[in-house]
Amino acid sequence: MADDKKRDDYAVDMGNSGKVFEQSIASPRPSGPAPVTSVTNNPIFPVLSYCGSSILMTVTNKYVLSGFGFNLNFFLLCVQSIVCVVAIQVCKSSGIITYRDFNSDEAKKWFPVSVLLIGTIYTSTKALQYLSIPVYTIFKNLTIILIAYGEVLWFGGSVTGMALFSFGLMVLSSVIAAWADIQHALQNYAHSQSEASAKVSTLNAGYMWMLFNCVSSAAYVLGMRKRIKLTNFKDFDTMFYNNVLSIPILLAASFFLENWSSENIETNFPPLQRNRIVMAMIFSGLSSVFISYTSAWCVRVTSSTTYSMVGALNKLPIALSGLIFFDAPVTVPSVSAIGVGFVSGIVYALAKVKQQAAPKAGVLPTTSQPMSASSQSARDSFKS
Q1: Does the pLDDT value for residue 221 go beyond 80?
Q2: Alpha-carbon distance 211 to 174, whole Å?
Q3: Confidence of residue 248 (pLDDT cuts 50, 70, 90)
Q4: To 10 degrees, what angle do helices 161-188 and 193-231 make?
Q5: DSSP assignment, residue 273?
C-alpha cells in the first residue's frame, strides 16, 4: 500500500531541488526493482487504471440498465456493493491485500461520504437510462467546473483564464449535444406528435438526472478528499467502508422505493434471459471493485480536480463505445459535440500544466488565498 503523502495541484513541487541535492552529494543509489510505494504514488498508474475502469463501468451499467429494460436500480447497486465486499474480503483472507477491520467510530465519520457515493451512482444509473453514452459523457464534463470552484472555496485552488475558456467549451459541447439529441428525436418521430413529445420528455428527464449527478459527483469527490485526509484511510479502507455502509441503505431503498411485484420481477428477469442478466449484474459488481479502488487511488495520489480532468480526457473512448456498441445516433452535431467536449478536456489539462508552471500568472479575481490542500485539511483536523 502507498503511504499517506499525496501530491496536490496547489502544493510546491520540490522535485528539481531534490535532484540538485542528490547530484551534489553523489549518494549511491541501490540497485534492484523500484519499491512498491514509488509505483503506487506515480500518478500515471492510477490515471490509466481509472480511465480503463471508468470505461468498463459505464459500458457495463449501460448494458444492464438498457439492454433488458432493467428498472431495479437500487437493487443493482446493492448487488454491486455486495460483490465488491465479498471480492475484497476474499483477497484479504488470501493475504493479497489488507485493510482495516470495521470500526463503528470510523464508520460514523465516513458515513456521509458513503451517502454521497450512493447519490452519485444512483443518479448516474438514472441518467444512463434516459440518455445515450455520448450525451452522458459530454454532460459529465460539467462536474469539473463544480469541483474546480469547490477547490477554490475549500482547498485554496484557483481558476485561470485558460481554465475558464475550457469551462466555456464544456458548456458549449453540452448545449450542442442536447440540441442534437432533441433534433434527432423530433426528426425520427415527426410522423407522430405524441411520440415526439414523449421522447423529448424522456430526454428532459435524463438532463435533470444528469444535473443531479454532476452536483452529487462534485460533492462526493470533494467530501472524500477531505475525509481521506482526516481519517487517514488507504485505498482498500475507502473501498471497504464505502460498500459496507452502502449495503443497508441500498437494501432499504430497494425494498421501500422499488416495485417488487411479480410482474415487475418478470420484466426485469425474464426466464430466457435471467442467467445473462444475473451474470451481467455480477460482472458490473466486479467492475465496481475497480472503479471504487482506482477512483480513491487517483484522488489520493493526484487531486480531486485532476481526477475529474482525467475523466474528461477519457470521454472520447467512452463516447465512441456508445456509438459502436449501442444505438446512439451518429450525426454531424453529435460528433461535433463529442469533439468539442474532448478538446475542452485537453484545454483544461493544458491550463493545469500552465498553472503549475506559473501559479501566479493570469489568475482570475475569483480565487482565494493560495494554500495547499494538505495544509488546509491538516488545519481542519485540528478544528474537528
Answers
A1: yes
A2: 12
A3: very high
A4: 150
A5: G
- Which alpha helices (H) appear in the chain, and where do they start and end? 15-25, 36-40, 44-67, 73-93, 104-130, 133-140, 142-154, 161-188, 193-231, 235-257, 262-268, 274-301, 304-313, 315-325, 332-357, 373-383
Q: What angle do CA 353, 220, 210 make, to 5 degrees?
A: 90
Give the separation between CA 124 and CA 210, rounded to whole angstroms: 7
Contact 223, 113 (CB under 8 A): yes
User: Which three three-digit cell numbers place residue 328?
Assistant: 446512439
d(CA 254, CA 366): 42
d(CA 286, CA 350): 34
Classify residue 363 by its DSSP letter: B
Chain centre distance of CA 7: 19
Residue 58's nearest CA partner among 295, 330, 347 is 295
* Residue 363 bridge partners (DSSP): 160
For the residues 208-234, what does the mean pLDDT come to? 86
The percentage of the chain sitting over the pLDDT mark of 70, rounded to a whole number, equals: 73
Which phi and psi angles does 204 have, rounded to 5°?
-60, -40
List Cβ neighbours of 362 (8 Å cut-off, separation of 6 or more).
160, 161, 162
Question: How many C-beta atoms lie closer than 10 Å to residue 2's C-beta?
Answer: 18
Alpha-carbon distance values, 232 to 108, 161, 227, 361 (Å) = 14, 35, 8, 34
Grid cell at residue 64: 444492464
- Positive or negative CA dihedral for 273, 275, 277, 280? negative
Kindly list the distances between the CA atom of residue 77 and the CA atoms of 81, 117, 226, 252, 309, in Å, as whole numbers in the listed order: 6, 11, 24, 12, 25
Of 105-109, 147-151, 322-326, the one with minimum mean pLDDT is 322-326
Residues whose CB is less than 8 angstroms from the CB of residue 266 and which lie 6 or more positions away in sequence, other chains included: none
Give 69's Cβ-side CA count (13 Å radius).
8
* Distance from C-alpha of 49 to C-alpha of 28, rounded to nearest angstrom: 33
Phi and psi of 27, rounded to 5°? -75, 135
- pLDDT value for 292: 65
Of 46, 123, 116, nearest in space to 306 by CA: 46
Residue 343 sits at φ, ψ, to 5 deg, of -65, -40
- Predicted confidence at residue 16, as pLDDT, reads 42
pTM above 0.85, yes or no: no
